[in-house]
# Entry
Amino acid sequence: MKFCARCGRTYDPVDLFCEICGIELDVMPAGRAPRSNSVVPPLTKQAIPEVPNEPVTAPSVPIASAPRPLATWNAAAIVALVTMVVGFTIVAIPAGHIALHQIKRTGARGRGMAIFALMIAYPVFIFWTVIVIVSLTRVSY
# Structure
């Protein structure tokens, strides 16, 4: 087992440099003595360069914070759903489209509610429009 001349760490004979101090390790062929100036003196406390005191920085790992509150419900989506259930499709359709626009812009909750209101309100509106047109154009004898 061999030791680094500077830091004293053990190393394998195949290593070329010390992993701790970075010094080139003795790789002399067997039977040859090292030159007198090739041995580096051990590292002492005086040989360590002074590092200026640097401010301590925060870790780069994000710190868990308080959970964000859920987004509020969009009022136009609620109006669209309620008016669709009550039967006021003339109010539910514009309210549903307004809700979708506001939800896209603000990130509020209620997108599914607005889409559901529109999916039901459009066929109901078309049904009652056809009924009214047919009843008004009906010829009486």
